[in-house]
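Researcher: Go.
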Amino acid sequence: MNNQSDLRLVSSLKSFSHTASLPVILVGCLVLVGWMFDIVILKSILPGLLIIFALLIWLYVRSFSRTDAAWKWAEQELRRLNEELEQRVVERTAQLEAANRDLIKDIVERERVEQRVTVLHDLNLAVTSTLDLQSVLNILLDKIDLLLPSAATSVRLFDREGGKLEPMAFRNFDPVELAEHHKRWGGRQSLTKAVFETKSPLVLVDARTHPERSDIEFLARQGLISYLGVPLIARGEILGALSFFTKEKHQFTTEEVEFLSTLAGHAAIAIDNAQLYEQVRAGQEQLRALSHRLAEAQEAERRTISRELHDEIGQALTALKLKLDMSIHLSGDGAKAHLGEARALANELIARVRDLSLDLRPAMLDDLGLLPTLRWHFRRYTAQTNVVVDLEQSGIERLFSPEVATAAYRIVQEALTNVARHSGAGTVGVRLLGNDETLSVCIEDRGVGFDLHATLSSGVTSGLSGMRERAFSLGGKLVVESAPGSGTRVKALLPLSPGKEGISSSSAWLNPWRTDEV
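Model: Structure:
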């Protein structure tokens, strides 16, 4: 018998028990009335009624016993069904809770993705609205604060001239501690340096275990634990690094590293644009200053030429004219004497004009090249100043381009002029080294020297500025070393090809560049 048949039997027995109870009561009443009141008719059928009553009682008791057993079975079955139902409810509830958790996770993930997309979009809009480097960096860190509000964030950019990673912007760092740390170590031992050198992200769950001693001490004082550093790369060139620190252990996921690397890529483009703009603006300012100094130099040169023409050549021409005028009125030996003096003045004028022409630009520089012209200049310089020039050279027995030859000649000429005027030295050393890429020039004396910073601050540096501008115009460098009582050294590095800046010379005279640049 299946469950449904059993339930129908229980229902039938229950109905029968209720239905059979009425005849039993009726027959019982008839038997009782007939017995008590001695009714003839009832007494005649009393045996039959008793049999019927007994039969009904038997059927009622039997049905009741079967109903009780069925009820017990039904109760057990209902309990079992209830337990199954409760189990199904629990399972379904668990499924709904899991689905709800997945839905919430999807919603949170979608919101996170939307937030990140929004941050990237806002960052692009913000950083393209300005070309000021510091403003770009501040906008970048403001946007990062929305994603990682409790993280300590810093941006370090590579300073090409200083050769160090400089902290340009930061959040949630102690500025005094950061400045002291950078002043002490200068980025020589740092996590950021590792990111910069490898050009790839660096993830550390506990940065305190990293072997860089300087960072361990700094991180301990700041209470920083986990670290993520991503490189700032634009146009295939690394500009610096973007660093994130947390004050609790945090395992940066692959997704977080990829997103923050993407963020750093967008930021690097903006930083590169800002730096290019700064370079263009600085170049324009330098061009204006150069134009101003060029105009001043031209005026000074004109004044010098004018003074030479007026004071020396003009006076000599006046004397020559007087001699010729006097010889007209004389005859014989007197006329010859005056004509001889006139000839001597004419020869002096010719020599003075030649000297003036050579001072403006020696023709042999174009005809014979740099080395013969320098040797001629050194002989002439020694004859005029009694300062002996000690020349050392290698690789310059060739013709350089007019621009390089002129720049090198003028730098040497100006430096020797300064030696004669200011150093008091009796000997000066000039060293030149040429290779396939650069021409290195060094002029050094053991004279009185001078305070370079004080001289630069005074603004009276037209000679130094002129030498620097000649080197700079070729994409090169010029460095001056000097101190009172220690003599002076001028070093120039000139690239031989346009576009190659003055770097990586093999000359021991010029490396390293550890001096003050003017």
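Model: Residues 365-517 form a domain with the Heat Shock Protein 90 fold (CATH 3.30.565.10).
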